Amino acid sequence: MKRRDFIKTSIATAAVAAAAPGVLLKRAHAADPLKVGILIPLSGPAGLFGPSSQNCAQLAVDEVNAGGGILGRMIEPVYVDVGVPPAEASQAALKLWKGGGAEAFIGMHDSAVRGALTNLFKGQVPYVYTPVYEGGECSPGTYVLGETPAQQLAPVIPWIASEKGASKWYLIGNDYNWPRDTNAAAKGYIAESGGEVVGEEYLPFTADNFDSNLAKIKDSGANAVMITLVGGASVGFNRAFASFGLADSVTRLGTLIEENTLAGIGAENSKNLHSSAGYFGSIDTPAAKAFAEKYFAKFGADAAALNALGQSCYDGVLLLDAIAEKAGSLDAAAMDAAADGTSYEGPRGKATMNARHVSKDIYLAEADGAAFKVVQTFSDVAPGNNCG
Known about the structure:
Elements: H1 3-19, H2 21-28, E1 34-40, H3 50-66, E2 75-81, H4 86-99, E3 104-107, H5 111-121, E4 127-129, E5 142-144, H6 149-152, H7 156-164, E6 168-174, H8 177-192, E7 196-203, H9 211-220, E8 224-228, H10 232-243, E9 251-254, H11 259-265, E10 273-277, H12 286-299, H13 308-327, H14 332-339, E11 343-346, E12 349-354, E13 357-358, E14 360-368, E15 371-381
Parallel strand pairs: 1-2, 1-3, 3-4, 4-5, 6-7, 6-8, 8-9, 9-10
Antiparallel strand pairs: 10-14, 11-12, 12-13, 14-15
Helix pairs in contact: 1-2, 3-13, 4-5, 10-11, 13-14
């Protein structure tokens, strides 16, 4: 049932119920709610992304439900904390899927958890993966919204090289597949821009003392540092970076530094700090401004800051709705057949899926104290050849 047909049916049902209230009760329960698992980090290193992720997902759920739901069924979101090791996250998803009756999943979490979930789902249930990631995910039933290295770095590194004089890069990230795979791609873009990598290291999520790392960066002669640390580790590193006296002379580029992370880093530590993403809360477009107004009207002026990771959960709900409506089904195989060419309009503008990924505008922002200011926009950047 298309959403407009559902709305018409609801109006007709209400008219009948005016004469026979019992009919409304019966019909209101004819379509069972659609239980959707929304998997977000509410604890652990990425826990600071959780509140905005939940808010944005709930805003989208409310809007889709107000328009008639997905295929005439009201979304019943179930929020699950996946800021835990992959095995625990997989068990929580399995319990919700097989035991709790979830028929679809939306995930904003790290790539290690994603790998565990695609191995669990095996294309049997639709799964929308929303955050920045390393590229290459082509599992059946999985649909990716997040920025890839081809989007975040291919246009950005040459700009940093040209405008900021970056020629000697130091790469530092947490020790798992997203930082390692992202940096593998970055090395190619750095070489193409005439630069070189003068250092590379990976730290555990628990790292909280960065003195030896910063000494290595200083000794390397790097004039640019690419940061793929997550959450609290990124906050701690960037604070120490500034206190070590490197912020004045070394350009920093983060691919997971959003507004919550910047708030933790602090205005006094943000000089020469840049971030590359498909969304910032400060984007000055009609769609983005309208979204921000709705967000703060619903959750209050003190709500968790808007950011690319949280906002991606809003888009995840829209994409699930769009593919299911086009397929006329929530069956994963039917959705796979319908996914290519599916479009929706969101705060980032129009998005169209091709080979399980979407092209998008990419924004390069520079920290201006405790806020981000977009300094360059790269239009309609392709995600690269992920499923070719």
